[in-house]
Amino acid sequence: MMSVSGSTLFAAEAAGVDAQKPFTLHDFLDAPDGLKIAGTARLRQEALQGQFRPGFEEDDVLTSLRTMLLMEWRHGAWRIGGELYDSRSWNTDDTGPLTTGEVNTLEPVQAFVGWESHEGFGKGSLASLQAGRFVLNLGSRRLVAADDYRNTTNGYTGLRADFSRPDVGSVTLYYVLPQERLPSDLQSLRDMDVRLDDESSAQKLWGVLAAKSGLPGRLTAELGYVGFDESDRPDRPSRDRLLSSFSGRVMRDAAPGKWDFELEYIHQSGSNSTGLAASAPRADAAAHFVHADVGRSFTGNWRARLSMEYDIATGDGTAPGNARFDTLFGMRRADLGPAGIYAALGRTNIETVGLRLEIAPSSRFDAFATYHALWAEDATDSFSTTGIRDASGASGRFAGHQIDTRLRYWLIPQQLRAEFNGTWLIKEGLTRDAPNAPPYGDTLYGSLALTLSF
């Protein structure tokens, strides 16, 4: 992937300010300064040809609409906020893989109260507390994130505390219950029924993230821990995961005419059940993930950045225990490709080497293109998130190639943006020869979206 620092740099430049002030719901309603009112509506059409998932038909299409409305009131050190998500999809193929990743209607994903203290712990310090329902984006977002490409997002209910001071760095502590998107049965999803998402102590997520920027060499370093505990409920069997994930990350921000890099390692251990049945035996879990990239940003009007990247996430082999890495609530778009009805590559049983080119020639337009060569980390496990598997390992580890691109253009600056995503999965080896590999050609995926901000 483009390093997270590089992503931020180019996104900020691509969303430059236009001389004409855009329409906002806040101004339209003549809301007071202490009250923030904002929203977005994204209409997207997706199409996939040459299905890679076993058991599904060759082609699939999906039309989706995601509307978000945020309100936040601030008074002194206090703030109260809420955000309503309305995610709807129309799947013209009744056999298509429609899930809660596409549909979640009229859901208050955020409803929280927060408190902030500025300068209370020294010059430049900031301390804050947040309680209720909210979204989380932590560190590289590879373990805990509020997914943006997907039509629905991840919400969490609980407590969060943040502290930062320039000479010390920042620390984030959290204890939350992940929200289970409801309803989850196929017919209710097709009918786009409204049902409030649920959270319970059957799923618990907690952790800490410490970061320090401004280190010698323009470096930023992070250390993190994520704990996850999952158990069965009467209406929802689970893998009974009890996982501890320790992460370390170091990076140098992208800058014109400079080299940058990112290196992250995550070690995961614990235990889980070998199946969903209540009687399924438990197995020890031990897995790891590595992301590395190095890039250079160029001077000039194109504001281009070229980088080389490497990712490996372990799969489960024939040895006792479970070695398949679990990305928990992490995003996938920035590293490996689109979610939506594509979602072929995830952070599990995969090894990949890639090249990435990014450009942002104006405040209205930005784009990137990537190439990745693909392998399964373990030849006997299911390849990444495709469901394709050769338990004998006879099809080998090589899984083909992926070419992926994204183009974004502000039709009306800061108001209406068009986005195109196109991905070509070239099937070779495992994805073509495995016993359950679908008998179709290469996978072609495309999406076209319009996002209105107000």
Helix/strand layout:
Layout: H1 4-14, H2 25-28, E1 35-49, E2 59-75, E3 78-90, E4 104-118, E5 126-134, E6 156-165, E7 169-178, H3 186-191, E8 203-215, E9 219-230, E10 242-252, E11 259-273, E12 282-297, E13 305-313, H4 333-336, E14 350-359, E15 365-375, E16 398-412, E17 416-427, H5 430-433, E18 443-453
Antiparallel strand pairs: 1-2, 1-18, 2-3, 3-4, 4-5, 5-6, 6-7, 7-8, 8-9, 9-10, 10-11, 11-12, 12-13, 13-14, 14-15, 15-16, 16-17, 17-18
Any overview of this molecule?
The chain has 454 residues and is mostly beta strands. The chain has one domain: Porin (Beta Barrel), CATH 2.40.160. It contains five helices and 18 strands. It is globular, with a radius of gyration of 22 Å. 39% of the residues are buried.
Give the key terms.
single chain; 454 residues; mainly beta; Porin; 18-stranded antiparallel β-barrel; disordered N terminus
Overall shape: it is globular
Query: Which regions contain 5 or more consecutive residues with pLDDT less than 50?
Result: 1-19
Largest sheet: 18 strands, antiparallel, barrel
Counted beta strands: 18
Q: How confident overall, as mean pLDDT? A: 93
Distance between the termini: 30 Å
What portion of the residues fall into strands of 2 or more residues? over 45%
